[in-house]
């Protein structure tokens, strides 16, 4: 039962009286506490966030992104010529084995 209001009539005048039941009102509860939270957090250690291998390019300048795309595309052309030059420079040699003498 909650609090209720009583109107008492005394000689033509009404008096407002509040009646409160003691069993109804409960004590206020605690809103917040950080007790034990730090201990719990440190039990397994507070770890740093893992870094990404490639950072996101979201929100990067569109002009730069366009140039980056062309640069990546044309990097492959140079790779072919470098491989051909490397093959020509190194002759086909078979590794020789050294025989042990007794």
TrEMBL record:
Region of interest (Disordered), ranges: 23-59
Pfam families cross-referenced by the UniProt entry: Ribosomal_L29e
GO cellular component: cytosolic large ribosomal subunit
Coiled-coil intervals: none
Record keywords: Ribonucleoprotein, Ribosomal protein
GO biological process assignments: cytoplasmic translation
Keyword Transcription: no
Composition bias, Basic residues: 29-51
Xref: InterPro entries: Ribosomal_eL29
PANTHER family xref list: 60S RIBOSOMAL PROTEIN L29
Family to which the UniProt record says this protein belongs: Belongs to the eukaryotic ribosomal protein eL29 family.
Stated name of the protein: 60S ribosomal protein L29
Organism: Gasterosteus aculeatus aculeatus (three-spined stickleback)
């Amino acid at each position: 039962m909650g609090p209720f209001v009583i109107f008492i009539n005394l000689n033509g005048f009404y008096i407002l009286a509040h009646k409160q039941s003691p069993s109804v009102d409960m004590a206020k509860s605690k809103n917040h506490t950080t007790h034990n939270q730090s201990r719990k957090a440190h039990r397994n250690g507070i770890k740093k966030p893992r870094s990404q291998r490639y950072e996101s390019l979201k929100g990067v300048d569109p002009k730069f992104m366009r140039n980056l795309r062309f640069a990546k595309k044309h990097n492959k052309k140079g790779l072919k010529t470098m491989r051909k030059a490397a093959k020509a420079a190194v002759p086909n040699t078979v590794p020789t084995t050294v025989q042990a003498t007794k």
